[in-house]
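Why do we care about 3D structure at all? Because function follows from shape, and shape follows, mostly, from sequence. That is the central idea of this module. The next example makes it concrete: a single protein chain, its amino acid sequence, and then its structure expressed as tokens.
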Amino acid sequence: MDFSLGERAESFRTEVRAFLGEHLTPTVIQQMHTTGTFNNKDFNSALAEAGLLAGAVPGYGNRDPIELYVLFNELEKAGAPYEGLAVTMLVAGVVHAVGTEFHHNEVLKPLLTGRYTCCLGYSEPDHGSDVAAITTRAIRDGKDWVIDGQKMWTTMAHEADWVILLTRTNPDVPKHKGLTMFLVPMDLPGIEIQPVATMATERTNATFYDGVRLGDQWRLGEVDGGWNVMGVALAFERGVMGGTNPAVPLLRHIRDWAANTPSPEGGPLLDDPLLRERMGRTAIANQVSQLLTLRAAWIAATGGLPGLEGSMAKLYATERYQQAVGWFQQMAGAEGLLSFGASHAAANGWIDYDGRHSPVMTIYGGTTEINRNNVAERHLGLPRAR
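And the structure:
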């Protein structure tokens, strides 16, 4: 079987790597980890100026999802601040797929400059991953809608220009059928943003909506058709736009650390048989994760929505990432628990960072439990869990 991506995709990969070599500086990476905001608008606008950003919108322009995969795969492997960009391009893909001319002019075109960002308004404090049970209400008032409620885990809300917001518009029908999606400008009166720190050092937010008045032109999709729009968004989110190769930069940091750390048995730690075995197993897992992600990208490239395949890729990749971090943290001992800037921190603090980041990765893009249910019901044909 030929796993090569083709001449065009490989040429694009070379182009992306050249861009990263020029623009992904230590300062950009340090700022990301210092602020907890995994986004950099100067970096994003440079991507746009280089002609790379339009290709990051699913289904838009002359790039296919294989090249979309290549872009986010290279950003992720390089440790770039891509999470805010990934969410923004995900929303851009949804706008391109189901948006009106108004949405294209008012939202999509600005997003393609790299200077504007979006956030996701799905989850709520009392409902977690049960997104269909949300209670944030949108009520018709003449030609407008009035929105009241709150959302949790709205990462990037403090920098975002728009939130893609799932609301309940009909409480008298089954929960999946009474939802409507909106694009909401974040500068409207009645929106409050409160920061929430995470163990992964990344800032997320709680957002509150109190009598937010919104014109109907900001609605995405049909009234009470929000679950269908949500399905498009989730298909883009899982598998294609990053989040499935987080152990690649980890392995690079481990190699550099072990090459310069003495082993209790003498010689560099890199010669330790157990460490080499675990590095080899991690490298194999990284390759499997890449192949699973490529499958999702291929399905998207041929016109499908790889929601199920994306769930499979994410499940495997994030669980193997967490396993690998545990291995290396165990071998580093107490120094593997020291953070960036601490004296004697193993791998300059990267092992500790990955140790705190890996559990969070099992939550992003749908929790492990939700993705397992997705695979069990849609692929294995098992009965619904609830």
